[in-house]
Design brief:
five-stranded mixed β-barrel, 2 domains, alpha+beta, 27% strand, 60s Ribosomal Protein L30, Chain: A, 11 strands, 26% helix, 273 residues, OB fold (Dihydrolipoamide Acetyltransferase, E2P)
Length: 273
Amino acid sequence: MAAPGSLSGQQPESPDPRIVVTGERPLETSAMVEGPEIKGVITKRSDDKIKVTTSASASTIIAINDATQIMSSGGLFGSNRSKLTTDALLTGLPVTVKTLRSDSGLVASQIGFRNSDLKTATMIRNGTAQRFDEQAAATEALRGRMGDIDKYNIKSSTNVFFDTGKSVLSARAKADLCATATAAEGMDNSLMLVVGYTDSTGSDDVNQQLSEKRAGSVIHYLQQACHWKPYRMLTPTGMAQADPLASNDTAAGKAQNRRVSVNILVSKGLDGL
C-alpha cells in the first residue's frame, strides 16, 4: 500500500539540502511600531512600493503589503489589495498614508484619498471618452513644453517669492496661488504653466535643482490646497537664474528674482470659444 502523501507507491522525497531559497521575508506588521502620517502625491510606484512627495518637495519611499488598507473618502474599497494597488494607487494621486516602522523602512498601514482625486488620476492615465474642449486642451497640455509656448495666449501671470535657498511657501504665497486658481477656473479652457527661478546666489547645478523644487512646491499646493486639476497643468520648468526680473547686484533685486511664475494660458485654437 502506498505511503500517505506518496505518488504510485513511492516514498516522498526529502528536501534537497543543496537548495537555498533567497529573498525578503514577508513583513509582519503586528511587530512594528507606529510611524509618521505622510500627506503628498504619489510620484512613482511599483508593485510593492510607492514614492510620496509632499508639498515641501520631500520624497518618501513607503512599502505596501497584504495588510495595507486602501481607502477612499467613501470608505474601504474591498479586500483584494493587489487589485487595488494596480487600479487605485496611480501616479499623480494625492494621498494620506498612515505608516508603521520596520527595520527596512516605512510600511503603509492605511492609504486614503478622495474619490474625485482618483477620478482625475485615472483620467490622466487612461485618457477620457468625453468630447469637451477642455479635454482637448488637457491632452495638449500633457505634451506641453516651453518651446510650445507660442501655441497659447497668456491671460495673466502671478509671481510668488521665496527666501534665499528655500522652497517653502509663505502664507502670502499660498493665498496668492489659490486666488490665481480661482481666477483661472473662471476662464474657459484655461491651463497653467509654472516656472521656477532663482537669484544668482549659488552654482548653476544648485540653482537648477532649487528652481525645479520651487516649481514643485507651487504645483503641489495648487493641486492639493487650491484643487487645481493636474491634467490642466503644462509641464513645469525650472529656469535657475535665467530671465531675472531685476538686477542681481542688489538684495532687493535678488528678492524679486527668487520666484515662481504662475501663468494662466489658453490655447490659441480655443481662446474665445
